[in-house]
Design a protein that fits this description.
The structure holds 2 protein chains of 2 kinds. Chain A is an alpha/beta fold. Chain A contains 18 helices and 11 strands. In chain A, strands 6-5-11-8-9 form a 5-stranded mixed sheet, with no helix packed on it. Chain B is α+β, with helices and mostly antiparallel strands. Chain B has 3 domains: 90 residues, Roll (Ubiquitin-like (UB roll)), CATH 3.10.20.740; 104 residues, Alpha-Beta Plaits; 241 residues, 3-Layer(aba) Sandwich (Rossmann fold). Chain B has 17 helices and 23 strands. In chain B, the strands form 6 sheets. Chain B has a 7-stranded mixed sheet, sandwiched between helices. Chain B is elongated. At the A-B interface, α14 and α15 of A face α2 of B.
Chain lengths: 421, 521
């Protein structure tokens, strides 16, 4: 498998401009400015089949195409570096090890929609990453890749790094925009969509770090080469952050369509400590969990995970072996979402905490008959009825844990205590 | 206006392009339940109560943020919608304290009403409720209960969008979210109590009204605010013949949904205190009660014998009263200088949202009815102070207390040969009178006010005046020697004599008033 996103990270100077340029960095940007109109650039990215790597998997070129050309307002590109999904740490690696790929990708995206101001919104806790990015931006500006008339092309672009204050919801694109505007990180109502009414009410594209970092390679090597990798609907490579009871945790770059079981057993070395695999969350804590026996035949792409009843999400693979108490795991996730619910809309604000309280009771020996039906009902009443996808993110794992590991929950309730620990 | 046809629960309705489903439904008389949506505020979409099913859309959509488009088929009563509504009700109530017995909102609470209509199932919530701040004083008139709050943010948006004073925000996250004042702020802007009206639950209550009356005992009388000449439409809400509160009445031509704090509480100063219950005449040793015939004969004789007279009518007198007063004075004291009380003051930017710079709600109508001149009341007061007049008839204004030159005015009034004061209380001005006539306040009378912009609107009597007092129009009509059954009759006569009012009658004025200019066209 050819490395696209992680091609530079092993070099000791991968985070410097000199190191980046020595491996062909900013050649894609030069090519774009020299040879491509924004329309052609958008077509190229469309042809590559690149889909958003933040979790939703929306085709990137199509997203850019929604930005109206005749809107008199300024246009913005925002790089979403608010990586907060539990079990996900792939953007952080790119930020710390290959910041110039992100800077270059962001400039390319800005050029595609004729934006002259771009932002990188980075999660507040990633202080080191912010320092690395800040340095990279300064280097790029000094070298003439940012600012007025970059590389003599007549195109102006400013790039501003903004640190968040540590709220999961600010990774949701409209919550991010509210936060970037200086407000409370509350998601906005859609419609209108950011493509027409985004940052400060202006046309805006929000792209994930991994999406933007893939752009330089796609431009340089050509969309066709990128599209040749992967499956029919999932093109190119994808980063997976693997954590939990696994021998070799870490960030892996995988061709889309790679067999999931093989990936876990061979690439990641299999379950640690010789224990048996119990379950896997494939796409970050908000995605439905899979039982060990469900992994057969799944390939690592959008379609296959969806067919298996879960989603690729952010690619945060959380591996749980037989020693894991699934009630405790479900409670832990529910607690996270109860804590991170922004509180704006009724179902999520009230429902997430309600579910957390019930999971908590079950795990601590006070479960009652009917509790599980209650959680399923609450989960169903949140999902799909909220302002932003957080409601789904909080309700899916709760329901999935109960459906997939029902007997373990029943045992907890019947025994009046945790039956695993 | 581009017409758009949509289907609402199988019924085809025509609306306009740009209208949302909730507006289109409301126009068609279908109320889609909602908390955060308010027609005068931006769309927040947070309560999720207005979720409806729209054909070809996989998820339920909020009616407040969905624009009606041609051919759209909306279901507001499908099983999926009903269940979503029930679920939202359940979510809103799980942490709610359910303290309806001690909550002032009970009886006009949207949680109560919607629970009955859209939920009506026992609570499934068996966990510990979250607690929040109770009885937090937000300002002079508004108190906050964080546990009853449903975070619809109507109050936050009101101060952002209507007053632009931005005192409130939402702090914290998840089920700890709560409305709070920004540090160092007090909720004391001139329109602050409107958030009590738009708060759909008992989170924001009126400190002046709370714990006084259960709202279901209130009698509601549509009327006009007597605070200034904006003429805000109000509901005068009374209990046991006392005014308990004012609430704004929606009138897009005047006050929209709002009422200022000063107007809202003006009834205290205008109605409270010990009432006069008998006419009185000054004899040696002071004012002594007499019967009405004696008092009115004394007025007519005293004014006729002591020209020139000043006739000063309250800015709160109705058109009907002004019409009779002007004619009565002309008859009894033809040389009398008549003025209606009117005085301006500076308004702040926030006050200008609603308020007019005066406290004379009917100064314009009184002038239409022939009382007063362009010169205004000040030169007339000066003439009294300078001793150029021999008598005065003062209606409904305590000029001694209102005047900056109160001491001089008091001594000048005391030197008049004859002074009649018609009022509801023994004011410092009335105490100087030779004849005192007990009358009524705005809450006890029917009639019309013409506001600053020339809109004629109706007052209705909300409570009954004390025995012994007479309606002001009745006093004037008896002095004039004419007889009327009710103010409506007086208005009919005035409408024939005052050209601007030609063709108007109480029926045409209706509940929301009529513009004079529009009548002329």
């Amino acid at each position: 498998m050819e490395k696209i996103l992680l091609r530079n990270i092993d070099a000791p100077d991968s985070h410097t401009l000199a190191g980046h340029r020595s491996r062909g960095g900013y050649r894609a940007l030069e090519k774009v400015l020299r040879e491509m109109t924004p329309e052609k650039l958008i077509d190229e990215v469309k042809a590559s089949g690149l889909r958003g790597r933040g979790g939703a998997g929306f085709p990137t070129g199509m997203k850019w195409g929604f930005v109206p050309k005749d809107n008199p307002k300024p246009k913005y590109v925002v790089c979403n570096a608010d990586e907060s999904e539990p079990g996900t740490f792939k953007d952080r690696l790119l930020i710390e090890k290959d910041p110039h790929a992100i800077v270059e990708g962001t400039i390319i995206a800005a050029y595609a929609i004729r934006s002259h101001t771009a932002f990188i919104y980075i999660r507040g806790e990633m202080f080191y990453g912010a320092q690395v990015l800040e340095r990279a931006i300064d280097e790029a500006a000094a070298a003439g890749y940012l600012g007025k008339n970059i590389l003599g092309s007549g195109y102006d672009i400013d790039l501003i790094l903004h640190r968040g204050a540590g709220a999961y919801i600010c990774g949701e694109e409209t919550g991010l925009l509210s936060s970037l505007e200086g407000g409370k990180g509350w998601p906005k109502l859609k419609p209108p969509f950011p493509a027409t009414h985004g940052l400060f009410g202006s046309p805006t594209v929000v792209n994930n770090v991994e999406t933007l970092a893939a752009l330089p390679w796609i431009i340089e090597q050509g969309a066709a080469r990128y599209a040749a990798i992967g499956t029919e609907k999932s093109k190119g490579t994808k980063l997976f952050s693997v954590s939990g009871h696994i021998k070799k945790p870490g960030v892996y770059e995988v061709d889309m369509g790679y067999p999931f079981k093989k990936f876990l057993e061979e690439d990641c070395g299999g379950v640690a400590n010789g224990r048996k695999l119990k379950g896997v969350i494939p796409g970050g804590a908000s995605m439905p969990v899979l039982r060990a026996e469900e992994l057969d035949g799944i390939t690592m792409d959008y379609e296959s995970f969806q067919a298996a009843g879960t989603l690729l999400g952010s690619g945060g693979v959380i591996v749980m072996d037989e020693s894991t108490c699934m009630v405790r795991a479900a409670w832990n996730i529910a607690r996270f979402f109860a804590h991170e619910s922004c509180g704006q809309c009724s179902p999520c604000r009230e429902g997430c905490h309600w579910m957390e309280k019930i999971f908590n009771r079950i795990e601590h020996g006070a479960g009652r008959a009917g509790d599980l039906e209650m959680i399923l009902s609450i989960s169903g009443n949140i999902g799909g009825n909220t302002i932003c996808p957080f409601g789904d993110a909080a309700s899916w794992p709760a329901a999935a844990f109960i459906k997939k590991f029902r007997s373990e929950f029943d045992e907890h309730i019947a025994a009046g205590k945790c039956t695993i620990h | 206006m581009d017409p758009v046809k949509i289907t609402l629960d199988g019924k085809e309705i025509t609306t306009e392009k740009g209208k949302t489903v909730i507006q289109a439904a409301a126009d068609a008389g279908i109320d889609i339940p909602h908390y955060c949506y308010h027609p005068k505020l931006t769309i927040a979409g947070n309560c999720r109560m207005c979720l409806v099913e729209i054909e070809k859309m996989p998820k339920l959509q909020i009616a407040c943020n969905t624009q009606a488009t041609e051919g759209m088929a909306v279901k507001t009563q499908s099983p999926k919608v009903l269940e979503a509504r029930r679920a939202v009700m359940e979510f809103l109530l799980i942490n709610h304290p359910l303290d309806c017995p001690i909550c002032d909102q009970a009886g006009e609470c949207w949680l109560q009403d919607y629970y009955m209509k859209h939920d009506l199932t026992p609570s499934r919530f068996d966990e510990r409720k979250e607690h929040e701040r109770k009885r937090e004083i937000f300002g002079p008139y508004v108190v906050f209960d964080g546990e009853r709050c449903i975070k619809c943010t109507r109050c936050v948006r009101f101060f952002q969008e209507v007053t632009h004073t931005d005192e409130l925000t939402v702090v914290n996250r998840g089920d700890h979210s709560t409305i709070a004042l920004f540090p160092g702020q007090t909720l004391d802007n001139p329109l602050s109590v409107n958030v009590v009206d738009i708060c759909p639950v008992g989170a924001l209550t009126d400190r002046d009204f709370r714990f006084k009356v259960r709202v279901w005992y209130l009698k509601k009388t549509p009327s006009i605010c007597p605070g200034c000449s904006t003429g805000c439409n109000i509901s005068v809400e009374t209990y046991q013949n006392r005014i308990a509160r004012f609430k704004p009445r929606v009138n897009e031509a005047v006050n929209s949904h709002w009422l200022c704090d000063e107007g809202r509480y003006v009834f205290h100063s205008l109605t409270e205190g010990e009432r006069l219950t008998s006419p009185m005449i000054r004899q040696e040793g002071g004012l002594v009660p007499v019967d009405w015939d004696t008092a009115l004969q004394a007025v007519a004789a005293g004014l006729a014998a002591n020209a020139p007279a000043a006739a000063i009518l309250s800015g709160r007198s109705t058109n009907e009263e002004a019409f009779l007063f002007g004619r009565m004075m002309k008859k009894i004291s033809p040389e009398a200088k008549q003025e209606v009380f009117y005085r301006e003051r500076e308004l702040t930017e926030v006050e200008k949202v609603l308020m007019s710079p005066d406290r004379s709600p009917n100064f314009r109508g009184a002038r239409h009815m022939g009382v007063g001149s362009e010169a205004g009341v000040e030169p007339l007061l000066q003439a009294i102070i300078e001793g150029r007049l021999r008598s005065a008839y003062i209606v409904g204004e305590d000029l001694v207390s209102l005047s900056e030159d109160g001491e001089n005015l008091k001594s000048a009034l005391g030197k008049l040969s004859f002074l009649v004061v018609q009022d509801i209380r023994m004011t410092p001005t009335a105490a100087l009178a030779h004849v005192v006539l007990p009358a009524t306040h705005f809450g006890e009378k029917a009639g019309t006010y013409t506001n600053r912009r020339g809109r004629v609107q109706k007052l209705e009597a909300a409570i009954v005046p004390p025995a012994g007092a007479l309606q002001d129009w009745e006093i004037f009509s008896r002095l004039l020697g004419e007889s009327y059954a009710a103010p409506e009759e007086i208005f009919a006569v005035a409408a024939r004599e005052v050209p601007a009012y030609a063709g108007l009658d109480y029926e045409k004025i209706g509940a929301l008033g009529a513009d004079l200019e529009a009548q002329k066209q």
